[in-house]
Design brief:
Blueprint (H helix, E strand, L loop, with lengths): L28 H4 L4 H20 L5 E6 L5 E5 L8 E2 L4 E2 H7 L23 H6 L1 E10 L2 E8 L2 E2 L4 E5 L4 E8 L11 H14 L4 E10 L5 E6 L5 H8 L11 E7 L2 E9 L6 E6 L2 E2 L5 H20 L12 H5 L2 E7 L6 E2 L5 E2 L5 H18 L1 H34 L20 E6 L1 H10 L5 E6 L11 H6 L1 H10 L2 E2 L8 E2 L7 E5 L4 H17 L1 H5 L3 E4 L4 E5 L2 E5 L2 H12 L8 E4 L8 H9 L6 E3 L5 H12 L3 H11 L8
Parallel strand pairs: 1-10, 14-16, 19-20, 19-23, 23-24
Antiparallel strand pairs: 1-2, 2-9, 3-4, 5-6, 5-9, 6-7, 6-8, 10-11, 12-13, 13-16, 14-15, 17-18, 21-22, 24-28, 25-26, 25-27
Helix pairs in contact: 2-5, 7-9, 11-17
Length: about 650
Amino acid sequence: MSEEVKKDNYSADNIQVLEGLEAVRKRPAMYIGDVGVKGLHHLVYEVVDNSIDEALAGYCDTIIVHINEDNSITVRDNGRGIPTAMHTKEKKSALEVVMTVLHAGGKFDKDTYKVSGGLHGVGVSCVNALSTHLKATVRREGKIFEQEYSTGKPLYDVRVAGESNETGTEVTFTPDATIFETTEYNFDTLAARMRELAFLNKGIKITLVDLRNVNDEGEPASTVYYSEGGLKEFASYLDRNREPLITDVIYFEGEREGIPVEVALTYNTSYTENIQAYVNNINTHEGGTHLSGFRRGLTNTLKKYATDSGMLAKEKIDIDGDDFREGLTAVVSVKVAEPQFEGQTKTKLGNREVTAPVSQAVSEMLSNYLEEHPSEAKIIVDKVILAARARHAARKARELVQRKSVLTGSGLPGKLADCSEKDAAKCEIYFVEGDSAGGTAKQGRDRHFQAIMPLRGKILNVEKAMQHKILENEEIKNIYTALGVRIGTEEDSKALNLEKLRYHKVIIMCDADVDGSHIETLILTFFFRYMKELIEKGYIYIATPPLYQVKKGTKAVYAWNDDQRDRLIQDLKGGGSESSVNVQRYKGLGEMNAEQLWETTMNPESRTLRQVTIENAAECDQIFSMLMGDDVPPRREFIEKNAKYAKIDI
């Protein structure tokens, strides 16, 4: 970090206050999304974002995150340290202002932070409000300052606790168990975000330590995330479970029209695209102007090269944008001083001035690469031509799916037992494994709002198939027509039209065995690759049938895991010594009668549904690729690593 960058004008008066903190504890979901697992982990991201902002400004290169034994969190950085002097307007320490006032911080002052990763969030004050205890320790100006809080209220004024030659901020907080559904942190969830931040901010070392998990030598589990290559390494990481089409990662880093742009892309042999787009370290799941710029630059440049080289001369089919993105893995990251977010989840960039700089960067990067690597360029264009041919075949298959309504009258698959309710928001459909279980489900359901669609065996693994083969598959055609969605447009052959979606709860119900889990995974792979919008809107669920029936005399109760089963056995024994309790292990849905299936798995009053969500799209992509793709070694490695956790019924 150069002396010029470190010119320090970060003082108490740089902290600007936008509004108060009153409503956070009353309506926490409004500020952090929810009070479940996602919201709990979001607290950590808000604190880490402050440290990342210091890194973006050039003052921090080390961040350490501790998951403490009691599930409290400590985040420490070596930045400048939050200012502690009196704030002119608020008449209190700037540290207290940052920690107790919503939307207060240096990121709102353009001279302090040019860009800010945390701008989309609600700040550390929200974390403070939702914690039973928070302690802030600041090292700056040769001293150690500290202040503690309870549910956002200071326990004492900011005080000097010692001297130090170091600088930086340390925050330790304990989430409020009366607000959150759970207060147990998941190491892998935090690790995925820390890894992502390390790739997006090359040269920053982020260490994640789990003090709850200590080995025999007394050393806690810890992982260091550090990337020298940034997005170039990120693209390789995302593609690690796929067979590469080219060995290179094509890379650009620079500034266009005052906007820092970093792009990395490569191609693999798969049939899906995986583009991760970021603005100020925020994963913009819904895309936006930066993604539009990337696609424009990619399509125009590749199409021009393919035309100029004469490779398209013999082709009688049109090439469109989709064809250039088949098998593409790319990461796009831009830094925008004042990002404008739109969309349902506020993760779509709306700044129009970003499109052209990204398009120019991609065009320049790709043009240079194609000219310097003619053999790799030919491989990419051949892949594009193959994708175009497959797309034309898929269009014919898609038209067959769309025409099915004309050919079959009602347009619904023959095996579908539909419900009488017509309001999609009130309707739910069960995709059930096998005709036998499907028959039981049809008998046990509430016909008013529950539809049943039996699936024959294991559906096609879409991770290994081209789109036209997928659309020709009978079971997948039935899923499309049962749901009522329309697929594909001339502009985007993978687009999904949900206007006529017939159910807002799509429930996967499979046997509680290995085959059932495999079928669940196959169906989820299909939804993730071809109906991701249904997952993003929260429409996809997994049913949880019980594993056991524990019975004594005429009394029968159900258990969903081994611990529950053992407790029920003891309860029914009533302290007696008889082994008079009968335990039945359900291997399949067909072993339950219609009344039992309704009572345990389908009745909204008593059932448990697991909603499928996408917490981290990049991680989801690589997991599906590893589990369901053609590349065997990553899958073998996963099985060998996790085999010890598998439970086998004998």
